[in-house]
């Protein structure tokens, strides 16, 4: 019984190792820049015509070497900046009417070309991401907009008003005053 179990375990491990080697050996070859640009242009045109894209369409048109979640999020963010909404599945007509995304009347090739270049440069710049937590934190903090003087003043006023309301609430309670 123990020998059969050991043989089954060895067979399972050997099969898993063979599957892993097959996957490594079958890695897709990197796609050249022209093909990547063509795929992105097609995707942008489709998004501009309809006013939306689905995640499945984006995954189908993206190069196979783009697998990092941050890269994909960056591309989706770029599409959102272009005015192309991204949905899990194709929305119904009512959802499209309620959303801000209206199909573009006609996206000219020069505009689509420029937007494809922008999306590609985003993907390429994201490719060199590091896993160092400090660098990741600094990169994220660099993208966050800092407070202006007016913003800081507004927050300070809100904090001050909150403190005043808290003191008034505490002073309105006779039990709290008696404890002090």
Terminus-to-terminus distance: 76 Å
Low-confidence stretches: 1-8, 20-29, 101-107
Shape from CA axes? elongated
Q: Describe the main β-sheet briefly.
A: 2 strands, parallel
Q: Could you give the order of strands across the largest sheet?
A: 1-2
Explain what the structure shows.
This protein has 180 residues and is mainly alpha-helical. The chain folds into two domains: 33-129, no CATH class; 149-179. It contains nine helices and two strands, in the order ααβααβααααα. It has a two-stranded parallel sheet. α2 (33-50) packs across α6.
Write the layout of secondary structure elements.
Elements: H1 2-25, H2 33-50, E1 52-54, H3 55-61, H4 69-81, E2 85-87, H5 93-98, H6 109-127, H7 133-143, H8 149-171, H9 174-179
Parallel strand pairs: 1-2
Short key terms for the protein model shown above:
2 domains, mainly alpha, two-stranded parallel ribbon, 180 residues
Short description:
The chain has about 180 residues and is mostly helical. It has helices at about 1-25, 35-50, 55-60, 70-80, 95-100, 110-125, 135-145, 150-170, 175-180, and strands at about 50-55, 85.
């Amino acid at each position: 019984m123990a020998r059969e179990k050991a043989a089954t375990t060895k067979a399972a491990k050997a099969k898993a190792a063979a599957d892993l080697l097959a996957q490594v050996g079958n890695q897709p070859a990197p796609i050249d820049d022209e093909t990547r640009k063509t795929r992105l242009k097609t995707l942008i045109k489709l998004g501009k015509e309809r006013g939306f894209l689905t995640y499945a369409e984006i995954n189908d048109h993206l190069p196979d070497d783009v697998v990092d979640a941050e890269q994909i999020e960056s591309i989706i963010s770029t599409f959102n900046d272009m005015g192309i909404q991204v949905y899990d599945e194709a929305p119904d007509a009512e959802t499209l009417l309620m959303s801000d995304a209206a199909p573009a009347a006609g996206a000219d090739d020069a505009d689509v070309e420029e937007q494809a270049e922008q999306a590609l440069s985003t993907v390429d710049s994201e490719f060199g991401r590091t896993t160092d937590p400090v660098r990741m934190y600094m990169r994220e903090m660099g993208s966050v907009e800092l407070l202006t003087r007016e913003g800081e003043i507004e927050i300070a006023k809100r904090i001050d008003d909150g403190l005043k309301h808290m003191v008034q609430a505490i002073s309105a309670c006779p039990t709290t005053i008696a404890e002090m």
